[in-house]
Design a protein that fits this description.
Blueprint lengths: L1 H41 L4 H38 L5
Helix pairs in contact: 1-2
């Protein structure tokens, strides 16, 4: 039974890590795409592309914090559980 719980916990942590990575990637790419499209439309190359990159990275960083906080919470619960059974000092 403990092995099943370990697998579940590993899957949960892996999923949270993928969510954080995908949030970062999606934010940067969407900012770049929006900046590129606006540059083409308004003829302001490359300024809106650069602005889109910066804004996309900022939004992605904010969006990536939620999964990172959940991962930290999972790690804290595991550490507390290990202390309860005496596995960790």
């Amino acid at each position: 039974m403990s092995e099943d719980n370990d697998k579940e916990e590993t899957n949960r942590k892996t999923g949270l890590a993928y969510a954080a990575g995908f949030s970062l990637f999606a934010g940067v790419v969407s900012g770049l795409l929006a900046g590129w499209l606006l540059d083409r439309w308004l003829g302001t190359k490359p300024w809106l592309l650069v602005t889109g990159l910066v804004l996309g990275a900022a939004v992605a960083e904010g969006a990536g914090r939620a999964p990172a906080r959940r991962m930290a919470g999972v790690a804290a619960r595991l550490r507390d559980a290990a202390r309860e059974i005496g596995a960790v000092a």
